[in-house]
Design a protein that fits this description.
266 residues, mainly alpha, 9 helices
Amino acid sequence: MKKLIALLTITGILVFGMMHFSFAENDKNAADSAKIEQTDATNVSQGSTIEDSDDQLQQSLHYVLKNKFIEGGAIWMTPILLCMIFGLAFVIERIFYLNLASVNSKKLLSKLDAALKSGGIEKAKQVCRDTKGPLAGVFYQGLDRADEGIESIEKAVVAYGGVQMGKLESNLSWISLCLSLAPMLGFLGTVVGMVFAFDDIERAGDISPTIVAGGMKVALLTTVFGLITAIILQFFYNYILSKIDTIVGDMEDATISFMDIMIKNK
């Protein structure tokens, strides 16, 4: 729990820090633009060129996203931002955990084989204790039941292997929740914004585009940012699933080799 809170804090600081940096950078650009326009006011053609280049600068991606986020309104944009923060926090936690869980199975099996030949079960257990990752824990459980026979070793390895696979998939449901909620919240904001737009039409008694354009724009922005959040989280979610599949496949192959080593050194 403490690790998750720390990750949420770090992710929030990074996200809001980037937004603060964006505000500061845009303020600086605005000040520089005003200074240039003031000093070059006597030269019409040069001033026009500077304005064009400044407009192009202001249309950069981070500037557009920041302004569109503000235009979308805090009520609907804040939940989407929270989905992004929480989702990325769980993503970072899973990536760190899976990277630590990855181990060179062939090297570990070679050490176990050498330890069994030279020092027996106890030395092999020590090798597992000195090795990080779920695979070493699975092997340790098998070695711990070496006196009970090959069948007991196999049952222990299979049972504890299932426990470790469950740990690998921990917090995936929360990433999936944030991934699903972000576009749903965006669509909800869009629908509510359309309702407000029709209210404006009813009050004005006119269907002029200028009446509904503002409300429709704000409504659609929530969907845009909801989809952006979902796309980012979907990419990392698939990466994590692929990483888990790789680790699980390696564990299954290594387990078969481990059983062969135990039979050979019985």
